[in-house]
Amino acid sequence: MNKRTSPIIIGNWKTTPATLSLAVKFVKQLDKKLEKGKIKLSKKSYYLAVPDIFIPTLKEISGGYIGSQNISGVSLGQTTGETIPSQILSGGADFTIIGHSEVRARGETADDRAHKVALSLQSRLTTILCVGELVRDKEGKYLGELEDDLKQSLLLVSKNLFENLIIAYEPVWAIGGTTPATPQECFEVVIAIRRALASLVGIDYAKKIHVLYGGTVTKNNAKTFIEEGDVDGLLIGRSSQDVETFEEIINACHSA
Ligand code: PGA
Q1: DSSP assigned state of 161
Q2: Which of 76, 149, 216, 223 pairs with 179 at a CA distance of 20 to 30 A?
Q3: Is the pLDDT of residue 1 over 70?
Q4: How many CB atoms are closer than 10 A to CB 104?
């Protein structure tokens, strides 16, 4: 696995848009705009994490990668209301997000997360694992806590499956607000994340695992995280839900 030269730009649509026809319209508009844009983009220049029910249709028409925002860590069988990795994959998903702070806030435990990540990677689904502190303390204890959180989430994963893993650093205090982390703050956490990964898979391999930033990414700050924050891409909520803004971010980051 090589360090990517082109950035990984992931839109997290959450519970938007309201209908499948709006989602189809968005993706068609986005692809048209990207095609007409000044920058020559590689074939798949964006990822969209969408409501599960939209995956098969969007996968058919989209020029990007389509994935889900969560999966279940239970195995095939008698659990009501859950969707497991093999089902998401067979519906056409290219990837899934796991451990988003909004899912954690609804009761996802470290144990749930460890099972989800293991099952997802065993199914060869590209897995975007989110980590991020609730608040920062002056002594920097949160860095150690983030490393522990990451190691716990990866507890059940064998080394040979890390290839399809991507880490998204999403400070919870920066999500859905107005103040993002600074690229410098991001840079420091990327080092801590790589340190935790190195303890699991060795430094050379850890260096190659892609790390993203998420939390109040806008068209004005997107590029700075890639240029100064040492991340390989972005996980974007609100700014991915407006077609013009998302297109501007994709183009800006590919010209970084
Ligand atoms: P935001 O959300 O970009 O709207 O802050 C990020 C996320 O929840 O992944």
Answers
A1: G
A2: 149
A3: no
A4: 19
What is the DSSP-derived secondary structure letter of residue 174?
G
Q: Which two tokens stand for residue 75?
A: 């195995």
Is 185 marked active-site? no
Please report the beta strands in 50-172, taking only residues with DSSP state E, as ranges in sequence order.
65-68, 95-98, 126-131, 165-169
From the candidates 102, 108, 170, 247, give the one annotated as an active-site residue.
170
Nearest alpha-carbon partner for 54 in 96, 24, 11, 87: 24
Place of tokens 């989209």: 62
Q: What is the pLDDT of residue 37?
A: 86
For the chain, report the end-to-end CA distance as a whole number of angstroms.
22
| CB distance 130 to ligand 1 below 6 Å | no
**Ligand 1 atom, smallest distance to 177 CA:** 5
CA-wise closest residue to 22 among 68, 65, 63, 53: 53
Over 80: is that where the pLDDT of 235 sits? yes
HSE, side-chain direction, 13 A CA sphere, residue 234: 35
pLDDT mean over 16-25? 98
The CA dihedral of 137, 140, 145, 146, to the nearest 10 degrees, is 100
Whether pTM > 0.85 for this model: the answer is: yes
Residue 38 has pLDDT above 90, yes or no: no
Distance 218 CA to ligand 1 centre (A): 10
**133 included as an active-site residue:** no
Nearest C-alpha neighbor of 249 from the set 4, 1, 9, 3 = 9
